[in-house]
Amino acid sequence: MLRKFLIGKGKAEGEGSKEERVPSGKDRLIELLIHDLTGPLAIASSSTASLINRMDQYGALNDKQRHLVERALRNIRKTQVLLQEMVEVFQSEEGFFKCEFFRVEEIVKGALMDVLEAADPQLTERLHGEKALEEWKRVVEPQGISIEIDGKYRHSPFCHDPKKVRQVLRNLISNAWKYRSQKMHVVIRGDQDLLLSVVNDGVVIPPEAQEAVFKRFVRLKDGGRPDVPGLGLGLTGVKALVEAMGGDVSLVSNEESGTCFTVRIPPIQS
Q: What is the pLDDT at residue 150?
């Protein structure tokens, strides 16, 4: 169950709340899109999955057919994730957060799995069979991915909305994966607030463009890789979510250390 928290003051709804925000025409349009797309996507997902998992009922697929159906299913589920991310941002803007304790390590593994599922299905299959973080590190290291978890939350649980924390980290990892040259480094630390950092060794973002990357539909131009996918919404969602959670996001980018996005999220006082 979601509860409405006044982030930064430790109060649930009823103990004082933010001034009511009047929905704009754009907000209402997005709400309608979310509502109208959820049902058809769920039907498309379940129907496509049935073609793969219930061949005794619908008939066997040859290799080419199975490949196309699996590709369609992956993209349907990717669209469902994007739609759910819109819901999470809307909920955060209204102050709705699910307060629970969770292990940060599981959020890191889940967010990484979300990104790799579309980018490298074979690597994802290998990770499905591993549970220990040390084994995960061993599997992803040849792909230029390193993971470091230090500080209080290496062993102690963190209290906040796990779905929203996972969404923030997933978008940071997805951005770093797309723009990396060879390496991506995920670092978790903090002894009070949770600090999430994702570093990549790809394109450097000049100082004059660093504020713009958090705006909607803004995408980096990498002359070496003009086909970098994306709509330019991921970092916008990160900023909106993190600020609604009472935290902040910062960016450092230079030739020596690469591009590093760092998010600070204070815990909810349960």
A: 94
